[in-house]
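User: Hey, quick favor. My workstation is busy. Could you predict this chain's structure for me?
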Amino acid sequence: MSTTDYPQVGRGWAFPPRWERVGGDGTGATGATGATGATGSVELVTNNGAEHVGEALVLLLRTMIGSRVMRPDLGAGVDRYVFEPRTSEACHRLADDVRRALVLGEPRVIVDAVEAVPAGEADDRVDVTIEFRIDRHRRPTSLVVPFYLAGAS
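Assistant: No problem, here it is.
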């Protein structure tokens, strides 16, 4: 899937941000810092469309609530669940936080379902399955994000 499949998604900066420096002669500069005519550009993500949105969702989920000065309600703060026991209540709260973050923080997607369940034999992992659509006219897509918790069930 490409940007032509999802024109509303567009392209964005790679994370973490990386700068590509180009010398004054148009070639990749390996010369001294401060070379005359040297320019640079920010590196963009290499994938487009649904893959780009999936990366954005993971970044949104890993963002701690209150860490963005201009948007203090942005993020899910899933890292705070690292030391939670693997109980059904913790899974329910995790799924609820993920759903809230996606609905409030990512307007490009329509969230159909969010489910957090203990991951089978792994005593310290909870799998969060997010079913979403980029717009109302596309087929559903899923993203499974594993989170490791300290306590056992």
